[in-house]
Design goal:
The structure holds two protein chains of two kinds.
Chain A: E1 2-9, E2 12-17, E3 21-26, E4 40-46, E5 49-54, H1 56-63, E6 82-88, E7 91-96, E8 99-108, E9 114-116, E10 122-126, H2 128-141, H3 147-154
Helix pairs in contact in A: 1-2
Chain B: H1 9-36, H2 43-62, H3 66-84, H4 91-109, H5 116-132, H6 143-162, H7 172-189, H8 192-195, E1 208-212, H9 232-280, H10 284-332, E2 333-335, H11 336-354, E3 358-363, E4 368-370, H12 371-392, H13 396-401, E5 408-417, E6 420-427, H14 434-443, H15 449-454, H16 457-462, H17 472-475, H18 485-494, E7 498-504, E8 508-516, E9 521-529, E10 532-537, E11 541-548, E12 564-566, E13 571-576, H19 577-581, E14 591-599, E15 602-607, E16 610-618, E17 632-637, E18 643-647, H20 649-656, E19 680-685, H21 689-701, E20 704-709, H22 712-721, E21 726-729, H23 738-748, E22 754-758, H24 763-771, E23 776-779, H25 784-792
Parallel strand pairs in B: 3-5, 10-18, 13-15, 19-20, 19-21, 21-22, 22-23
Antiparallel strand pairs in B: 1-3, 2-4, 5-6, 6-8, 7-8, 9-10, 9-16, 11-14, 12-13, 14-15, 17-18
Helix pairs in contact in B: 1-2, 1-4, 1-21, 2-3, 3-5, 3-6, 4-5, 6-7, 9-10, 11-12, 12-18, 22-23
């Protein structure tokens, strides 16, 4: 049994354990960060702290390409301004969610990383540690003054 | 409608806020000075009091508060009476002055239009002061003040009659007698009343010298009274909350707009309802509906009136939140100078305790620290000073024998370097002997003999920072140095900084502290690329310019950016921020604004879509996830709560100079600077913060990058470090006055245009200015028109 928050991400039903969730908030203006990897949506001001916003959909597909097909398809909601703030080992990142379904205690499916919700739907359990690790790797790849930047600076 | 100086009402309001803070501070300072002694203030104190009042008057004029100008003027006259002896100092006089100043503070606090009662109180107090003129009180008027009043009272009365009509009413005779008498009395008496050291005006050194421990005079801590100490974390939290407030305000404004359009729609619905009722005709339903329709109409009118009021309320909210934000930004800042002011008494008491003489010199006092950094670095520095005095600096006899000055020399220098604050604390003591340290480490059993032999000198010195390597009981034997260096390093590291030590036996020891600017407030140049605002540290911005794109080769082809542009007769690489931060340059552009950067002697230019201008920003860290991105050094948060990225100048320099080879400029490249884009770096020296702020605004709009200095000494230091295109200075300033500054600047540089902005626009001063090659003399109160006119004369 896991205490989770269940939310819709694009058309996919996902959940994250409550112990990683610091808060839910409304995204303000997301400032794009040119030269950052694509999975970084941008940065926002969260009460004076610069907070990265990740594209969780993109990350999930990268982390788990085998399960690119959604566990449970939910109606596509408008891309909202709601976001969940995660904190893992002192690192903080937010991601946009389309819709928050519920906060509840769900049991595990036979499949790994999958939960069953009260309506019997399959929910992908997200491991924020893996997500943030992947994000760190991606930013690490784009670190420094890579050739792309040098080209951009001098090209037209 | 804009104010006659061209300030928008809210801008003027903001400047007045600055003025009020400053005025309160000035008046507080005057009261403190007056209350310091029960006897008549000495000449030096009087001249400080008069200068402070005068500055206040000038600032009030600049922010268009004529009633305050008038009051300050009267107060200044009364101080002049004290100086000339026409007001005889007594307990009554002191009381009257203190009361009057208190009433004055009330008037300033009351805002732009004080109520009659507040004004009346001040008028009464001033009248009371005036009634003291010419009255000898019971306390036998001391002969001293009488004697010196003779000559001056003459010139004083002269000045009054001459300048009645002038609003400023400072005539030559007064200003001259004032400035001269100041220097003369001190020079003649030699003792300078209480032996206070004179400001080091003639020195060619940009450093200021505070004699500590040598006790050649009391060190006056400025404004040490009545200072509220607040934890920086609290300010941070408040700052964040203000950010939220601004953000919420924007949201409320949007909602109000929604409300307004809803009201409009409701009006339309009502109109349709009316049409329907009219169509039905004389039916009984219609008669029933009509009063309802009318009721609805009234409600709609009320709704729109309420919405309008709500909009006004959000306006008020906007003003308050920006005042709050500005205030908090100010709170966070502290100059290195103020850190030194706090260090000096410490150094004095340490010097007294160990019985050694020491002289402290400082440089870079204008570098601004975040208070959090300054506060936390204080203890480590005191520790370093303690070590230097206790163990580094030799007894006077030894020093003289070694050919050193008897007093130990300690130098603290502050610089801002690539986003770091670099603080160097050096002494000219005996230094640390690595050989002696090795022996000590081996003897105490910390190191094996082999390890001690293998270790390099640097390693030996570095190990002093290790825990437990430098403890009190062995300090004296540790060849000189090192109590608690581990603690010092820990504090610095916790701040996110680092510390290094170099030492030459016999010559001295030097500690270099590199401190982060994570929470520091910085001056930045803001500009837009693809709708987003970015910032660059102003420190590295040389000027702004305009680049023409190369004409397209084919009709369909896109215009191209030249590879270099000409900056001050030199071709520098040109980078396109559009390409770097966006998809490219939009095809309809024929030219772009550019920012010319000078970083570690390497110059290059960056194109952008629009230059926003110089601003003060709070630097925030990007956090662990984004820190690896080399292009950015941090971010800041705009007034509306948006994140703005700060570009890393070092990274851009690497991009401009790949492999760091200097680029040879092809002579054929056409690179032009549009004539309309006046740009340059201006240095403003004025002891009034409100005036500095006003000038910064005027000059920024005229395309200048503006640096400010609060007195002549600071200005001179800054002038020597950077090339300025124009120097604008006040005449009356503490430390080094305007003419002193100009003389020193002219001694080194005959060409830089200089403008004097002063209320002492006497013909003698004007003549003196002309002799010194001053471009123009602008009389205070300063207005945009006057200054722009003076600037125009440059070309």
């Amino acid at each position: 049994m896991k205490n989770v928050i269940v939310f819709a991400l694009d058309q996919r039903l996902c959940a994250v354990e409550l112990r990683w969730v610091r808060e839910m908030f409304t995204l303000g203006y997301v400032t794009p960060v040119p030269s950052a990897p694509r999975l970084l949506d941008g940065i926002v001001n969260l009460r004076g702290t610069i907070t990265p916003v990740l594209d969780l959909g993109l990350l999930l597909n990268e982390v788990d390409p085998d399960r690119a097909a959604p566990t449970t398809v939910v109606p596509r909601a408008r891309r909202g301004n709601g976001a969940i703030l995660l904190e893992v080992e002192g690192m903080v990142a937010a991601f946009r969610v389309s819709n928050v379904e519920e906060v509840s205690t769900l049991s595990q499916d036979e499949q790994p990383d999958t939960l069953i919700d009260s309506r019997g739907r399959r929910v992908t359990l997200i491991d924020p540690r893996r997500v943030l690790e992947r994000a760190l790797d991606a930013v690490g790849d784009a670190r420094g003054l890579h050739p792309g930047l040098v080209e951009a600076a001098h090209g037209s | 409608m804009a104010h006659e100086d061209g300030f928008a009402p809210e801008e003027l309001e903001m400047l007045r806020t600055f003025f009020r803070d400053e005025a309160q501070e000035s008046l507080e300072k005057i009261t403190a000075l007056l209350l310091k002694t029960t006897t008549r203030p000495d000449e030096e104190q009087l001249s400080v009091v008069m200068r402070t009042t005068h500055t206040l008057k000038g600032s009030a004029g600049t922010v268009a508060l004529p009633h305050i100008v008038d009051f300050a003027h009267q107060l200044e006259d009364r101080f002049a009476d004290v100086r000339s002896g026409t007001i005889v100092w007594s307990a009554t006089a002191l009381d009257c002055f203190v009361e009057a100043i208190d009433a004055f503070r009330g008037v300033i606090e009351a805002g732009n239009e004080p109520d009659e009662l507040t004004l009346k109180r001040l008028r009464q107090q001033l009248a009371l002061l005036k009634s003291l003129v010419g009255i000898a009180t019971e306390t036998a008027a001391d002969a001293e003040s009488d004697a010196e009043s003779e000559s001056e009272s003459e010139s004083e009365s002269e000045s009054e009659s001459e300048s009645e009509s002038e609003s400023e009413s400072e005539s030559e005779s007064e200003s001259e007698s004032e400035s001269e008498s100041e220097t003369e009395t001190e020079a003649e008496t030699g003792t300078a009343s209480d032996g206070t050291p004179l400001p080091n005006q003639g020195s060619n050194d940009s450093t200021r010298s505070i004699v500590a421990g040598g006790l050649s005079g009391p060190y006056v801590t400025p404004d040490s009274q009545r200072v509220l100490r607040v934890s920086p974390r609290r300010v941070d939290r408040m700052m964040d909350s203000v950010g939220e407030l601004v953000f919420d305000r924007t949201r409320i404004e949007r909602r109000v707009q929604h409300l307004r359009s809803l009201t409009r729609e409701l009006g339309e619905t009502r109109q349709r309802l009316r049409d329907c009722i009219a169509a039905v005709g004389d039916d009984s339903t219609a008669t029933q509906l009509q009063p309802l329709e009318q009721h609805l109409a009234t409600q709609i009118t009320r709704l729109s009136a309420e919405t309008a009021t709500l909009l006004d309320d959000t306006d008020a909210l906007r003003r308050t939140s920006s005042t709050l934000q500005d205030g908090l930004t100010q709170i966070r800042m502290q100059t290195a100078d103020s850190l030194m002011h706090r260090l000096a008494p410490n150094l004095r008491s340490i010097a007294r305790a160990v019985g050694k003489k020491v002289e402290l010199t400082t440089a870079g006092g204008d570098v601004e620290f975040d208070k959090a950094v300054a506060d936390r670095v204080m203890d480590p520095i005191v520790q370093l000073l303690r070590n230097a005095l206790a163990h580094g600096i030799e007894p006077a006899s030894e020093r003289i024998a070694a050919g050193k000055p008897a007093a130990g020399q300690i130098h603290i220098e502050t610089r801002q370097h690539t986003g770091l604050i670099v603080l160097t604390v050096s002494d000219d003591g005996q230094g640390i002997d690595p050989a002696a340290l090795r022996a000590r480490f081996v003897q105490s059993g910390r190191w094996s003999k082999t390890r001690a032999q293998l270790a390099s000198d640097e390693e030996v010195l570095r190990s002093l920072f290790d825990a437990g390597m430098s403890t009190r009981d062995e300090a004296d034997e540790l060849a000189g140095r090192g109590i608690g260096l581990d603690a010092v390093r820990e504090t610095i590291a916790r701040l996110g900084g680092e510390i290094e030590m170099t030492s030459t036996p016999g010559k001295g020891t030097s500690f270099t502290l590199r401190l982060p600017v994570t929470t520091a407030v910085a001056q930045a140049m803001l500009f837009k690329v693809h709708g987003n605002v970015y910032a660059l540290p102003n420190l590295h911005v040389l000027e702004t310019a305009y680049v023409d794109l190369e004409p397209a080769l084919t009709p369909a082809g896109q215009r191209r950016l030249p590879a270099t542009m000409e900056v001050r007769e030199e071709h520098v690489p040109l980078l396109s921020l559009q390409t770097l931060l966006d998809s490219g340059i939009r095809p309809d552009k024929t030219g772009l604004p550019a920012i010319v950067v000078d970083y570690a002697g390497k110059r290059f230019a960056l194109t952008c879509d629009k230059i926003v201008g110089p601003r003060q920003i709070v630097v925030k860290q990007l956090g662990p996830l984004l820190a690896p991105l080399a292009l950015y050094s941090g971010a800041t948060i705009s007034g509306s709560g948006k994140v703005q990225l700060i570009l890393d100048t070092a990274a851009l320099t690497h991009l401009a100079y790949p492999g760091s080879q200097p680029i040879k400029a092809p002579a054929s490249t056409p690179a032009t600077q549009a004539p309309g884009q006046v740009s340059g770096r201006a240095l403003v020296a004025d002891d009034s913060k409100a005036i500095r702020e006003v000038m910064t605004r005027i000059l920024s709009r005229a395309g200048y990058i503006v640096d400010v200095a609060e007195d002549g000494a600071h200005a001179l230091g800054m002038f020597r470090e950077l090339r300025y295109d124009i120097l604008i200075t006040d005449l009356e300033m503490p430390e080094l006055d305007g003419f002193g500054l100009i003389e020193q600047v002219r001694a080194e540089d005959a060409r830089t245009p200089i403008i004097i902005v002063s209320s002492r626009a006497t013909s003698a001063n004007k003549q003196r200015a002309r002799r010194l090659g001053v471009l123009s003399f602008v009389a205070k109160p300063i207005t945009r028109r006057k200054l722009v006119e003076a600037l125009r004369r440059m070309s």
